[in-house]
Amino acid sequence: MKNLIKRFGKTLFRNPPLGTAFGFLFFVGMVSIFAFLSPYDPDALDVAHKFEPPSLRHWAGTDDLGRDYFTRILYGGRISLIVGIVAMLLSSAIGVTIGVIAGWTGGVVDVILMRFIDLLSSIPWMILVTVVSIYLKPGLYAIILVIGLFRWMSIARLVRAETLTVKEREYVLYARSIHQKTLYIIARHILPAALPTIIIAATTGVANAIMLESSLSFLGLGVQQPVSSWGSMLNRAQGVLATAPYMAVIPGLMIIGTVYSFNKIGGAVRLLVEPKSHERSAEL
Question: Is 221 exposed, middle or buried, given 0-12, 13-18 or 19+ CB atoms closer than 10 A?
Answer without folding.
Answer: buried
